[in-house]
Design brief:
By secondary structure, the protein is mainly α. The protein has helices at residues 40-60, 66-82, 85-88, 93-110, 122-126, 131-145; strands spanning 3-4, 18-19, 25-28, 31-34. Helix 1 (40-60) packs antiparallel against helix 2 (66-82). The chain is elongated and about 70 Å long.
């Protein structure tokens, strides 16, 4: 047990200082780090944030053109994905999958495509980078820095 000693111990073994507890996850600079570093909690948090943006895209697609919605996508949606991607982007495919699905759904909303539309070419249609490209870009940036 690790304690935070704020007492003035006189050498006796009876110390009533606070014991540090093991946390399952912690949020640091907007990135949720779990105790096993699986990034599952962080990706779930990102998907939750992106779903709020999906609602906005659904409302805006009746008012704005595709070019303007693409700008909104970069400003609101991709900025969520981009922040910290060099850290969490290397998580297992099963953990990242909900995030990629949400990204593809956002593109389908912007392009007014049905939910069942094949997703292989979506990023090319809207001319936006996919998740793996964003991760590799940031990984290479970090490699150049160090």
């Amino acid at each position: 047990k690790i304690k935070i000693h704020d007492c003035k111990s006189d050498g006796s073994k009876s110390c009533n200082c606070k014991v540090l507890e093991l946390e399952q996850n912690i949020k640091y600079l907007g990135i949720i780090i779990d105790s096993k570093i699986t990034w599952k909690d962080h990706v779930s948090y990102l998907v939750k944030r992106m779903k709020r943006v999906l609602y906005s895209l659904l409302k805006l697609r009746g008012l704005l053109g595709v070019d303007t919605l693409r700008i909104v996508y970069f400003a609101l949606f991709q900025s969520i994905i981009d922040y910290g991607i060099a850290v969490y982007g290397g998580a297992s495919e099963s953990i990242i999958k909900p995030l990629i699905k949400t990204q593809r759904y956002a593109i389908k909303i912007i392009l007014k495509l049905p939910k069942r539309y094949p997703s292989a070419e979506l990023c090319d249609l809207l001319q936006v980078p996919d998740f793996s490209w964003l991760y590799e870009r940031d990984r290479l940036r970090l490699r150049l820095l160090f």
